[in-house]
Amino acid sequence: MTSMTAARTTSADRPQPGLRERKKIKTRQAIRTATYALIEEQGYDATTVEQIAERAEVSPSTVFRYFPTKEDIVITDEWDPVMMAELRARPEDESWADVLKHVMRTALDLSLAEEPEVTRLRTRLGVEVPAVRARMMESMAATGRLLREALAERSGLDPDSLELRVFAMSVMGGLMEVSQYWAETGHRDDIRELVDRALDVLEHGLPTGKP
Amino acid sequence: MTSMTAARTTSADRPQPGLRERKKIKTRQAIRTATYALIEEQGYDATTVEQIAERAEVSPSTVFRYFPTKEDIVITDEWDPVMMAELRARPEDESWADVLKHVMRTALDLSLAEEPEVTRLRTRLGVEVPAVRARMMESMAATGRLLREALAERSGLDPDSLELRVFAMSVMGGLMEVSQYWAETGHRDDIRELVDRALDVLEHGLPTGKP
DNA sequence: CCATGAAATGAGAGTAGCTCTCAAAATATA
DNA sequence: TATATTTTGAGAGCTACTCTCATTTCATGG
Asked: How far is B22 from chain A (nearest CA, A)?
């Protein structure tokens, strides 16, 4: 977020963002890579920020300069802008469930293609480490706020109305559960199918309810 | 939890639970009261566990013996068993939305009658303090697991199925948003009406969707 | 009423996440 | 090359939280 606004200072878009920016990206990535490796070796709780800093060859202060909390090193992703753009690009007459299916599929395909192991590790930590799960839920709530902006545009409803807020958060709650389910069952299923099934539930209610 | 199992050691149920149990309850209450008072005076972050211990006239160790985290001192409530009992007691043919309306109403009436200020303070902290909100969401997820057990009994669905899990969590997500909304709007509305409206959204979808 | 066993408490040391400050180093700019 | 700005590292400090062990408080049986 910060880097995006700081990117264009005064000059036009340069292909090379300058040494400073490049180093920052490298440092950020080094910290995340070190964190993932250490967690795989020792588990989350046993991994201290000091160890992360050491392996990433930076000081502990620097780690906290890049990530506000230890959990954020794990869960931070940058798909929100992509998802929102995709969301607004969907045709006007498409049902919200179909819209979300497309959007989620796009985000998941990107994420799984780019770093499949990390995607799985993250969801697993979401199950195993309460602090990580909590941070995920926070991030989910933030995405929910974005979602309801977009849904407000589509539907013409007030984005601050209780109804839209409840709706958006219930969708996000359901999607969060998909992530938990996927990880708890050992990532056996195709998560995109799980998402589709979840959105079917949210759209049509539970199946096999007495008619 | 611990106290409940330890309650009946060998003798029959006594009206007076013994001096030890009574003292424990008093200590627990003293800690919570001290916490609420200090938070009102100074805010959440500025209130340290040491201060809480001092005002409650116990040692800091004792505070952590009674509550696993500082957030738990604030958010712990004991309505889950009540709600579950109420849930199972509803007539078989009632819709799940109506069931939940009744259950939530019962819980809210109890909570508001017993300690209205605390109920409001809690929801307010859920908006203002990320750590408290996170803990609330955890507790919400736990309630969601109970909810899906009960819903499984009613519907005959597998409690571990993705569908039921998604459904239960989406309901809890929606209810969580009600709490946020209520606090953000200064507790102006009747929260029981808000709950009803939220459950209507969850049952019938958003209003004014194009037909 | 007293002795014995069990539970609750307090004191204190220790860990680790996180914040803040300030000086040194790296980079951009002129 | 000189100067201004940004980034970093070192270190001190706070606090939530854990663990251990001695002391106190309550329960129980004689």
From this structure: 32
